[in-house]
Design a protein that fits this description.
- The chain is mainly alpha-helical.
- The chain has 16 helices and no strands.
- The chain is globular and about 60 Å long.
- It starts with a helix and ends with a helix.
- The relative contact order is 0.07.
Length: 293
């Protein structure tokens, strides 16, 4: 009863964290109660099912993030994964993606790939690095994405969303390390397929903003304009964090197009939102891009 009540209060309070001026007061209250809430969650891990764990887990991770307690958030995710080794692949994909976001907040793209790779492996995806096999995988993914529909089960939809974002993180890491175009397209189209199966706006937006950086898209003004209209139309369906991520991705896309005024506007807007929501690493990276430009 104690655990249920404490975690229910946590979930209700966290719903207000991104809502204007009262957010600071809510965070201060949660900070005072964090030891009680953490104990309640630890108790719940012994008996609660993944469905029961997920809402307070998201809320507690959010509080840790807003407080800057990344090590505590990392221990939280490790504890969940360790206590539920027999959970379905879908749930473990979701938790590995959540863990990768915690590590990303600490270290950027350099140390979050183990969790992303684990999510991809749980999905049964083998990403080929040979040129011919990579292009074949790309064609297969594209064909499946055109026919794909959102999964019926809500947990499967969340798992596919986690998979799409994990693939995007791996794509960025492989791009930095000089992967071939064929390999990068394999990652990109695999993420498109997962986004379609998730039916979630933020997963689709991540894929569409990547498309804007591709040279064939940049050379076709009508296609470029169509993508931008679709991106803007779907922004209403995402939270402030994902909206800032889209702004940041659009900034990168505008760099490749040489549209410098738009680059600065996107990065400045993203940096302000991310800093206000506690995403220090990402906010600093946006500022670095402006300085570099």
């Amino acid at each position: 009863v104690f655990a249920h009540a404490a975690l229910a209060r946590l979930v209700a309070a966290c719903a207000q964290l991104n809502r204007g001026p009262q957010a600071a007061a809510v965070l201060e209250t949660l900070h005072r109660e964090i030891a009680t809430v953490a104990s309640a969650f630890e108790m719940a891990l012994h008996w609660a099912s993944p469905d029961e764990i997920q809402p307070p887990l998201l809320a507690l991770q959010n509080v840790y993030h807003r407080l800057g307690w990344h090590h505590a958030a990392n221990r939280l995710m490790e504890s969940v994964l360790a206590r539920h080794p027999q959970a379905s692949p879908a749930w473990r994909m979701i938790w590995h993606h959540m863990a990768s976001e915690v590590v990303h907040s600490q270290h950027g793209y350099f140390r979050n790939n183990d969790h992303c790779a684990a999510a991809v492996a749980l999905a049964g995806i083998a990403l080929p690095r040979g040129t011919v096999r990579a292009w074949l995988a790309t064609l297969s993914n594209m064909a499946q994405a055109l026919l794909a529909r959102p999964a019926r089960d809500p947990v499967q939809r969340l798992a596919q969303r986690s998979l799409a974002h994990s693939l995007h993180s791996l794509l960025t890491q492989r791009f930095v390390n000089g992967a071939s175009v064929a390999e990068l397209m394999g990652y990109l189209t695999a993420s498109a397929l997962a986004a379609q199966r998730s039916g979630m706006a933020d997963a689709r937006l991540a894929f569409m903003t990547r498309l804007l950086s591709l040279e064939p898209v940049r050379r076709r003004p009508r296609l470029n304009s169509l993508l931008l209209r679709r991106i803007r139309a779907q922004l209403k369906d995402v939270d402030p964090v994902r909206e800032a991520a889209v702004d940041r991705a659009l900034g990168h896309a505008m760099i490749s197009a040489g549209r410098w005024d738009e680059v600065e506007a996107h990065f400045r807007r993203a940096a302000a939102t991310l800093a206000a929501l506690g995403y220090g690493y990402d906010a600093q990276e946006c500022q670095m891009q402006i300085s570099t430009m």
